[in-house]
Each structure stands twice: as structure tokens, then as C-alpha cells.
Amino acid sequence: MKELLNDIFHFSGNVLCIGVDNSKIISSLKKNKKIGLYELNRPEKRGFFARKKRIKTETGQSVKIKKFRTLFKKKSIDYLIINLNNVFDYYKYIASNSICICNKKIYIYGSSDYINAELIAKKFRRYETNIVCKQNKNNYLVVVECSKAKYNWLKDKFYLVIDTFHNLGDLISYFLTS
Length: 178
Prior knowledge:
This protein is α/β, with parallel strands linked by helices. Helices cover 34% and strands 28% of the residues. It is built from five helices and eight strands, in the order αβαββββαβαββα. β5, α3 (91-101) and β6 form a beta-alpha-beta unit. It has helices at 2-8, 23-31, 91-101, 117-125, 153-177, and strands at residues 13-18, 35-41, 54-57, 62-64, 77-83, 102-111, 130-135, 139-145. The model has no long low-confidence stretch (mean pLDDT 81).
């Protein structure tokens, strides 16, 4: 987390924050005058069936989490900061959408309760990116250098199907072992 706070002072360009609720990160981003800041925040979860499937922009516009890239053009965002704990339900869409809109670096952080840094890195390696994973006992930070990333729509759909079958296999194995 300290590395992310140190890197924020060197940002220049457009920055998109998805699900970031850490006040230190937001305040240091607002102090930096060389960036344009966009925030997508998700309302509180109310329960399993009353879950919010939309996120709100700072102007009040509501966007589906699965399709937040319709709001931005291809490679229009320079830096992307994602708190994976707040948007974990749409984890399978985050990799493809963020590679499509981000131009320089993607920072993904969260707690290790849900998922570890190696699984996130595995998803982003498909797009031929450079990845740095840092994980301590509770938290992780994954930095993805996506300036040379290659995005293909057909490959993305193929990986989505593979991930769905992989998640289904994990669910069945969890059910059988418990």
C-alpha cells in the first residue's frame, strides 16, 4: 500500500478509481494537480438478492459494473486503481475491461481473504503484460504494466468461457469436500 501512495505523486494524466474507499489514497490523488480524477463507487451491499449491480460516477451517472468500459474510450485512462474487495462479484470482467481502457499501469489491491495475488496475475498474463505482485499476510498489491498489452475480443470471450468452467469445477470440488 505504501508503494501505491508513493507512486501517486508521480502520476500525470487521467486516473480512474473503481471501488476505492481508502481516504489516504483519495486525498493524495486530489492533492496531485497533474491528473484528472474519475471515481466509480459502488453503493453498500444490502444482501444477496438486493445487491446493487451498478456503480455511480461522481456526476451521478449510473453504470453497470460489467460494462464500465462503455463510459471510456479504448486506452483513454492512464492509471487505474481498483479495490477488488468492493467489486469482487465482477472479478471475471475486471481484467478484460481494465486492459481495454488503461494505457499505462493498473494497481489492484485488496485483502487475501477472497483471492490471492497470483490468481490476479494469472488473469493479466494472458494479455502479455509485465506484472509485479506484492503480498503480505493480509493484503496484496498487484501492479500491471499494460502499455504493450494486446487485447483481442475473440480471445477475451474464449477466456471467459474457460474461467466459467474453472469456477464451476472449483465449486463442485468445494461442495464434494465439504
